[in-house]
Design a protein that fits this description.
The protein is an alpha/beta fold. It has a single domain, classed as 3-Layer(aba) Sandwich (Rossmann fold), CATH 3.40.50.720. It is built from eight helices and twelve strands. It has helices at residues 11-22, 44-48, 65-82, 104-117, 135-141, 160-171, 190-200, 238-243; strands at residues 2-6, 26-30, 53-56, 88-94, 123-128, 143-144, 147-150, 154-155, 178-183, 188-189, 206-209, 232-233. The strands form three sheets. Strands 2-1-3-4-5-9-12 form a seven-stranded parallel beta sheet, with helices on both faces. Strand 3 (53-56), helix 3 (65-82) and strand 4 (88-94) form a beta-alpha-beta unit. Helix 3 runs parallel beside helix 4. The longest helix is centred in the first third of the chain and has 18 residues, at 65-82. It starts with a strand and ends in a 9-residue tail after the last helix. The structure holds NADP nicotinamide-adenine-dinucleotide phosphate. NADP nicotinamide-adenine-dinucleotide phosphate (NAP) is lined by residues 6-7, 9-13, 31-33, 36-39, 57-59, 61, 92-94, 109, 128, 130-131, 134. NADP nicotinamide-adenine-dinucleotide phosphate binds at residues 6-7, 9-13, 31-33, 36-39, 57-59, 61, 92-94, 109, 128, 130-131, 134. It holds the Pfam family NAD_binding_10. GO terms for molecular function: protein-containing complex binding. Residues 7-171 form the NAD(P)-binding domain.
């Protein structure tokens, strides 16, 4: 079966491609680096020719409100237009996206989902919690000088390997024409996650808890980013993942 993975060179994309190739499928890892650009449309029709399944794992190079909205709208439209004959369109979105529409990034994901739902193409949307690998990015986006001001709200972080397992499984299953949720094995406060990350990586920045600190534009509560009771849970705990990362040099 021909499967096209848009963003097939990215974090989740590359791991999903690897899993599906191991199962013997004809998988195209599509991205601007391989001549497929969903913004300009270059190479998209050729990439999708004969594909039964499209998995959209692209991400916007910019998280700025207007840029990210334009990215997911333009990319979604181009992909769905070229993929009108596809039997299953799959996209990865975010747990709590609909609750957090004060965030420009979440509005962009909503726009992406609405395009998929209105396309008439059979689809599955996977809502995931935040990846373990994304925690450093969250810390960075809330850093001023040596201080990282963060909401102490719960997150339910999940390893990219667990996410890719689900994406590969969904690609080989029938479309649900709806949304499924996945999350990590445990809830941890964002401030605790980043404190553990900094300890493991010898990062000298100070973590400060502030319930009003924004997460990509919105305040969080303890349920905002946590998966529902029916969510499928990954196996890899944050601390176990952290202990498997290459050692970091202590800064002088
Ligand atoms: N971060 C989280 O915790 C989280 C949680 C839930 C859901 N998600 C969603 O998961 C998805 C994948 O995230 P990720 O972290 O795996 O992404 P990533 O590592 O940043 O990879 C992004 C991919 O998008 C490709 N891309 C960028 N511009 C493109 C274009 N114009 N046309 C085609 N491909 C393009 C990149 O290709 P190049 O390598 O060629 O640049 C790359 O392969 C995103 O949609 C995100 O919203 C993320």
């Amino acid at each position: 079966m021909k499967i096209v993975v848009i963003g097939g060179t990215g974090l989740i994309g590359s791991k999903t491609v690897e899993r599906l190739r191991k199962k013997g499928h004809d998988v195209l890892a599509a991205s601007p680096n391989s001549g497929v650009d969903t913004i300009t449309g270059k190479g998209v029709a050729e990439a999708l020719a004969g594909a039964e399944v499209v998995i959209d794992l692209a991400n916007s190079p910019s998280f700025e409100d207007k840029a990210v909205l334009e990215f997911f709208q333009t990319s979604g439209r181009n992909l769905l237009k070229a993929g009108a004959g596809v039997k299953h369109h799959i996209a990865l979105s975010i747990v709590g996206m609909e609750r957090l529409q004060g965030s420009g990034y979440m509005r962009a994901k909503m726009a992406q989902e609405q395009l998929i739902k209105g396309s008439g193409i059979p689809y599955t949307i996977v809502h995931s919690t935040q990846f373990h690998e994304f925690m450093a990015g969250i810390a960075q986006s809330n850093t001023v000088g040596q201080t990282v001001r963060l909401s102490p709200a719960y997150l339910q972080p999940i390893a990219s390997d667990d996410v890719a397992d689900v994406m590969a499984e969904v690609a080989l299953a029938a479309p649900v024409n709806g949304t499924i949720e996945i999350g990590g094995p445990e809830k941890i406060r964002l401030t605790d996650i980043v404190t553990r990350l900094f300890k493991a990586t010898h990062d000298p920045r100070q973590v400060t808890a502030d319930p009003h600190a924004r997460y990509f534009g919105v305040e969080l509560d303890d349920t905002s980013l946590v998966a529902g009771a029916k969510a499928r849970l990954g196996k890899i705990r944050f601390d176990d993942w952290l202990s498997q990362q290459p050692p970091q040099k202590k800064s002088a």
